[in-house]
Design a protein that fits this description.
205 residues, alpha+beta, Gyrase A, domain 2, four-stranded antiparallel β-sheet, two-stranded antiparallel ribbon, disordered N terminus
Length: 205
């Protein structure tokens, strides 16, 4: 398991088979860093661009008989056109609540209710608005980098503690620290690539 894990992350496992504490620290760091990247991807999937997307509505909760419920659980969502989202509620009585929830969100969308479905037109973005959104995306990316660097700090502290408690050599600790840095560099690079792709998507839609 660990061999596959570290092969994917370009972090060599060779030499750590006899040092399970080091293996565990590196494995935990990789897992937590990947979670930071996944969180960023989820955040960016909800960023409004000039194109319709089901993911745009992921964070919306609808008042379903007094219970805040994810929009996806009260109706089907489709994208029949590049700039149009259509919601077909399972119960027609939920139309007004769905419309209300979308208007109350921070997405700046204007849904229309024709008595059968909710239609949400996605207006094109101005150049100025695109730049504002890109700036916001890079802020999210920077927050993800901060999270990754915090994991690095935690891992380095754990290695120092493990060196004292487990009795492995200082050279082993230093090699493990280099592996932690390689992990960090890889995930920081991935974050930059994700943010760059999102910027390109926003500016060229």
């Amino acid at each position: 398991m660990h061999g596959t894990l570290f092969a994917q992350c370009d972090v060599p496992l060779s030499g750590w088979e006899k040092h399970m504490p080091i293996t565990q620290i590196l494995s935990d760091a990789q897992h937590r860093m990947s979670k930071a990247v996944e969180h960023l991807q989820h955040q960016l999937s909800r960023v409004r661009t000039g194109r319709a997307s089901v993911a745009l509505l992921d964070g919306i909760r609808v008042n379903y008989y007094g219970t805040p419920t994810p929009l996806q659980q009260v109706g089907s969502i489709s994208v029949p056109e590049p700039r149009l989202i259509v919601i077909q509620p399972w119960e027609r009585s939920m139309l007004a609540e769905i419309e209300k929830a979308i208007k109350a969100s921070d997405l700046g969308l204007n849904p229309t209710n024709d008595g059968a479905v909710i239609r949400i037109p996605i207006p094109p973005l101005t150049e100025e608005r695109r730049k504002e959104i890109v700036k916001s995306c890079w802020k999210m990316a920077e927050e993800a980098k901060v999270a990754v660097r915090q994991v690095r700090r935690d891992a380095l502290e754990q290695l120092k503690k493990a060196e004292k408690e487990e009795g492995f050599s200082e050279d082993d600790r230093r090699r493990a620290e280099e592996d932690v840095q390689r992990l960090t560099d890889r995930f920081i690079k991935e974050i930059d690539q994700i943010a760059s792709r999102k910027e390109h998507e926003i500016m060229n839609e």
